User: What shape does this take?
Amino acid sequence: MAPLGGYQGKILRVDLSSGKITTEDTAKYKDYLGGTGLGYKILWDEVKPGTKAWDPENRIIFGVGPLTGSGSPLSGRTSITSLFPVNIQELPGTGHMGGQWGAELKFAGWDSLIIQGKADKPVWLYINDDKVEIRDAKHLWGNGVFRATAEISAEVGPEVQVAAIGQAGENLVRVSCVMCNRSHSAGGMGSVMGSKNLKAIAIKGTGAVQIAADKKAWKDFVYEYLSLIGANNQGVVPTTPQPWAEYYGATRWNAQKGQFWGAANPPVETGVCSADDLNKMGFRTHKGVLDHGDGPGQRHTVRGGGCHACPIRCHVYTDVPALETKYGVSRYNANTCIGNSFGKSFFDNLASGSEIAIEASQLGCALADDYGLWSDYGQFPRDILYAYRKGIIKAKLDPKEYDSIPWKLLDAGDPAWLLDIMKRITYKQGELGKLFADGPAFLEKKWPEIAQFHQTYESSCWKDAHAKHHSNENGGQVGTLINMMYNRDSQCHTHSNYLASGLPLAVQKEIGAELFGTPDAVDANNNYTKMNKGKAVFAKLSLVYLELHNSLTACNWTLPVWVSPRKDRKYRGDIAMESKALAMVTGETVSRADLEMTGMRILHLFRALTARYMNEKDMRKNHDKANEWVFEYPADKPALSAGVSRMDRADIELAKDLFYEEMGWDKATGMPTRATLEKAGLKYVADELAKQGLIA
Ligand code: SF4
Assistant: This one.
């Protein structure tokens, strides 16, 4: 491919069966941008229906996009796409990883990496600019992520960026992940690497990513972009009244006077971070306080951290000395969100915001990030707790195994419980370890009591045993539709970031009218109204921008900037910022409409891929589902009644009608129509689906 800003022009392909290392022209895949779009395209072209996640024929695609490495704000993400081992049918899925790895791949001169085949013994891959080697991993296999990373760094130099699996991935634990830079995980994908005998991928890149725009124009653009970004999750107003702010609300912009990174030496005050002070963006979100409560959160936070080219720094680095003295792991840890709640989610008896809770949280990090064990958004720990409390585990397990498990530690709320349970799952020890290593969907098939539990509100479980993730509680029908679309938890924050901006409802509605065509697209929190066309547009755009972020690649945990902290813009952001960034980086003309068409193409392709692997033409009935609790909240919980979070079945059927219409999908089946596919440049997809009898 001729040199073009943003792209390096070539993609690396490694066949671990034959040891062949080859190069592909990026131009072949440009209609899909990169990242997830590229991953879906490779799966469509190369992985036949019927292939399973751990088959050598499966691909694992480490996709980065044209923005990664350019310095465009929040562009440090990597999308890892494959057949998803946690899904009961092993349908296509994707997981995301941050840190510096994606940018380093670009600096080494590669737009993405495709891995196929299976090595006959454990190996690791070393990418040193153009020099690519498959190296023996005998000395790394059996070790955790930390040791593997340290060994590789000692071998080739500390500047290397390493993505590795731990023992969980090696042992084909379905709930396993790929880790890089300590706190970033691609949930669910670890065992695919393990099945290929691939321990790690390490990169050293000495090049750069070219930007087509001239330096001054690019710098001005980046400053403009930064001025539209708020705090983590795009909270655009502070949580507490501030002299500079017109509004305050429930957001992650929690910086304030008297609030500290207390374990820094000397302690650092986050203080007042006004919207126009871009140098303090990294202080706006004190994630330690958000994840661990005010007291322990301030006491144990050393600093914030995060991914390449991100000013938000939503990861919290902690120092908890008790971890060393009481549990024998490092006192220093780093993570964000679910990584920090994983350890706690194994308990139902820890006071939130307590010292013991942060110990459980950070012990959980230390173990999970080393084993490469994935939280699955707390779903399997919730299942363990339920099964234990209800006596299901006792009834099912051999008494000898049951008695060998230190339940007393769980009952006492002692974090040391994690040392046993996490190891048991990572090494698939006993019946319990094996069952939970497979994840909730497979467990459902073995233990019907768990399948029943998943249909209840307390399980927090969505369809096909995936954890719910910003679903009906976020925009009623909008969150519900979004959570129906994927083959795992939806990982969509576009809609939830808009709704969690902290702006007053009237302002959200005003901006919503401009974005979605009607103020009625946006409801008050926990007070949704009947389905309408505006909500279908809201759901569609949320999904389009999710796929665009995962393909460009950029962070959907904070983007898009549909609103902003800027009073001078009446809190408007700019929905065209992604297309403007792409145009500036590549030097091509890219309008908002062009880019959204690309997002639609990626979504249609994903839909077609799923239908093809399922061999299913009625996606409406057999794929786009929700568990019973979504429609049947318990009557004794009025706060969860209709119009609050409980959805109405007929209204959701209407929501599907309106959403499919927006997408250009057949209303009866939820399948993309031939006309829609052809308009999006996917005639070859339409032809293949027709051959399989899935569309006309
Ligand atoms: S907001 Fe957090 S997850 Fe997103 S790019 Fe920044 S540091 Fe990474």
About this structure: The first helix runs from residue 35 to 46. The two ends are 36 Å apart (CA to CA). Residues 563 and 572 are 5 Å apart (CA to CA). The pocket of iron/sulfur cluster is lined by residues 74, 76, 98, 232, 306-307, 310, 312-315, 555, 557-558 (CB under 6 Å).
